[in-house]
Amino acid sequence: MTITAAADTTAMFDVQNVIGTATYLLAAGLFVLALKWLSAPATARRGNLAGQIGMAAAVIGALLGHNVVRYEWIVVGFAIGALIGAPMAIWMPMTAVPQRTALSHAFGALAAALVGTAHYFLFFQPGNHLPHSITMGFLCLEVLLGSLTFTGSLMAFGKLQDLLPTRPMVYRGQNVINFVILGAAVAAAVSLVINPALQWLFPVLLGLAALFGVLLILPIGGADMPTVISLLNSYAGLSASMMGFVLGNRLLIIAGALDGASGLILSIIMCRAMNRSFANVLFGAFGQVQTAAATMEKKTVRSSSAEEAAQIMEAAQSVIVIPGYGMAVAQAQHKVRELYDQLTRRGIDVRFAIHPVAGRMPGHMNVLLAEAEIPYDRLVEMDQINGDFPQCDVALVIGANDVVNPAARHDKSSPIYGMPIIEADRARTVMAIKRSMNPGFAGIENELYYADNCLMLFGDAKAVVGSVARELAETAVATSVV
Amino acid sequence: MTSDFASHLYVFLLAAFLGLEVIKRVSPLLHTPLMSLTNAISAISVVAAIEICGLHKGQTTVLATVLGTIAVAAATTNIVGGFMITDRMLKMFRKREVKK
Prior knowledge:
The complex is a heterodimer.
Chain A: H1 2-5, H2 15-37, H3 41-63, H4 72-91, H5 97-122, H6 133-160, H7 174-194, H8 201-217, H9 225-247, H10 250-274, H11 278-283, E1 302-303, H12 306-314, E2 318-323, H13 325-330, H14 333-345, E3 349-354, H15 364-371, E4 379-381, H16 382-385, E5 394-398, H17 407-410, E6 429-434, E7 454-458, H18 461-481
Parallel strand pairs in A: 1-7, 2-3, 2-5, 3-4, 5-6, 6-7
Helix pairs in contact in A: 2-3, 2-10, 5-6, 5-9, 6-7, 6-8, 6-9, 7-8, 9-10, 12-18, 14-18
Chain B: H1 2-24, H2 31-42, H3 46-53, H4 62-92
Helix pairs in contact in B: 2-4, 3-4
């Protein structure tokens, strides 16, 4: 039987087997090193290289395996994968990285679900026998996780790519329906463990899990995407790990567990950064119930111009920029870099305050700002920079909203109460760039905009930052002529 | 059979704890490349897909070969795309350049 062959390490003096084991062992070690080196920007590229070598070793090991006697379909698969993967990596703009990530989780999960399905039906080949119930249990988990992560990630992709509405989609009894479908999927899995010969039930399991994946993501809004993407990342890893249990392949178990752990840590960080629990993110349908927030009395905001903003910034000693998803949508990062250049040229200290959930995936803002060639030592985490706001002359909020809402600190009725925020309101002057006064994603009014020290710069983030940078460039020319 | 699974569970447990410890240290700066790298690494499922595609004709079915080929393609997409975009991102993270 083919499936236990990979686990068979007892054959002595079997060169193929020795090479296979050695390459897999090498790959496992290199994967751990890859993640270790990724911890700091200085060694990160070496980490990526280690990952590549590990993967190449494992693929060579697999190709040399005993049971691999035909290569035509493998080559076809390689070619298709390379033709899709490489262009996506080379030409995809950095603002589309969250979509690409969601799509890659879908691909990874698809591979796991299909491999599991193929293994299941191979049990019925002549000469093979039905699996042990433990094997069957892991196989069911593998396809369950794989299938729901596949459709869930496609849904997330659809929302991030604006193919689907990004607002949470909710209906009455949603959670009950979701749990019933998950329950039915688990029941199908349990029946298959008890009696693996129930071939008709296997597609049912796949279908129910796929349906659950769709329904699970329906009520998720854009602001929760960082958590959900991390969670899907974790599921995709775990399903690869389950595949390892089915095959008795330790490399799969290890690599899957590393991916699962990474997704888990990121989702915990994201949840903490929003002061919410997993259950609340998945079943809470954030942003739907808060229509009552419109009770806020009408207050006035102070609207300002690029000229005035430029004058205030010129007089500043320190400026802290708080970027949010709006910066990504407007693709404003290169204009932000121009502004950064203008200010640093004048000796003004410019730093960037990054909230963990700013953007649509973990680290989204950092990648965009790095793309615009802003040095990474200027990008500061929320906890490290919050203490500096009282000494900061200008806090410039670019397309961020909920992460700078002071209501999170004191307004117990606010849905974001308790969420750690970037304390932009404590700066001497706050400038907020916004397209309009529409509330942010969570549908919550932001009292920051009505504060006495806040100036609003209305317009597209890219246009506004560009015109402020231009104003600064012109005054620089004017003074140098004088 | 059962003792095999027990030893695999130990492997899983140790790998998960090692993963948690190592990844906790990754700077939040690099969380996006972290996700694309771990995604590429978990495309290790390609080795199982390769095995399915490479089975002798007598040992397999058309269905399994089709599923295996799609799985190889999907995993390869993640391997090629994942490592390449991770490198593209990491190249962008630079220290402050020395101004003349």
